[in-house]
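Practice problem: Putative oxidoreductase CzcO
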Amino acid sequence: MSYPFGGRSHYSVIVVGGGQAGLSLSHCLQQRGIDHLVIEKRSLVHSWRTQRWDSFCLVTPNWQCQLPGWAYDGDDPHGFMVKDQINGWLAGFVAHVKAPAVEGVTVERVTRVPGAGGRERFDVQTDTGSYTADQVVVASGGYHRPIVPRLAEKLPPHVVQYHSAQYRNPAQLPEGAVLVVGCGQSGAQIAEDLHLAGRKVYVATGDAPRCARFYRGREVVDWLADMKYYDMPVTEHPLREGVRDNTNHYVTGRDGGRDIDLRRFALEGMELYGLLTGLGSDGTLEFQPNLREHLDHADGVYNRINASIDRHIEARGIEAPPPSVYTPVWEPPEERTRLNLAEAGIASVLWCIGFSPDFEWVDAPVFNGRGAPVHQRGVTGVPGLYFLGLPWLHTWGSGRFSGVARDAEFLAEAIEERKNAAAGSQPDAQEEPAAAQLRAA
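Answer key — structure tokens:
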């Protein structure tokens, strides 16, 4: 193997993943003078270029783009960057960080092994050779395996199927109706994209919540930021770690930002169904009779978020337009539980039901029964092993541009503390070390 950066095979820290999280940590480690290597399977910030459809845009305002040393500084802070703008901004971040990184290298195994002087270290095996490191940070995100149910195998071969990660635009699909399975952020926005293009769209809904784009004269994100929602750690959330399993609220930043209301789409010809459960031998799709429940749940969350903003406004005597409550513009006349593919003219199916994590290559006893890492703010029970960039790792923004910098700074401090301890030195007594912060939390 030919090692980069002077032929080194050992580093104080190896960061697995060169997305926004891994690069954020690289920036923080460079600020501390800690030697490290970022290993990226494809190319830096790869997923933003390849796993987004053409009309994709942010669902959070541009001012929330706050990567370390690289905050959004454009002329539209309350706008929503589209795909090309996002990638341009991220290209600037890559150039800004100048991370010591190797691209096109796949990490196949991370194992803790004995090291010199009785200290353990990590063996990092890749498809091009092996490295060792005193500490390892897994920053590869939590969206690895596209979820496609076994039901997909039963669909007729003439029906074209894509996962949301593969969707680009309506012209990619054959003529005919489209079934979108799932109504989270991706499903709802892709359904809207197809609907606006004049395609006949059927949607198999789930229990995804939704929220308003604007309320009482302001962007809802601005209100929630004032209410310190984005500063709430997972340990203080009413659901605790359970919030990590929640589906994201559907809303869009498209055309300056607006609500996504499936009921309004239904008035305009979109066909809505409940949860997809099966496919009969005659080519008939089967659904649960829970469409009304799904729509009511989404609207209930929408109204509860707005009500929390109402309380905030009242408590602080803020002048704002009057409150309102969303009332349904359409109700399902009946619960339809069957849909024949041929009779509906469905020529393509888009699976928009998310991703599952894949951390099988991390050989460490830090995972729960569902394969998710157990940690406190990214610090696992295995000394020197960390995770970064996961949804609700610490706050709502941990997996987004808005919160990953704070998490990266925290882990860099924990890494530095451990490095100093191993070298026989101690951090400044005036500074509260990261481990102490964790214990206090």
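Discussion: Confidence is low (pLDDT under 50) at residues 425-441. Students who identified this feature from the tokens alone can consider the problem solved.
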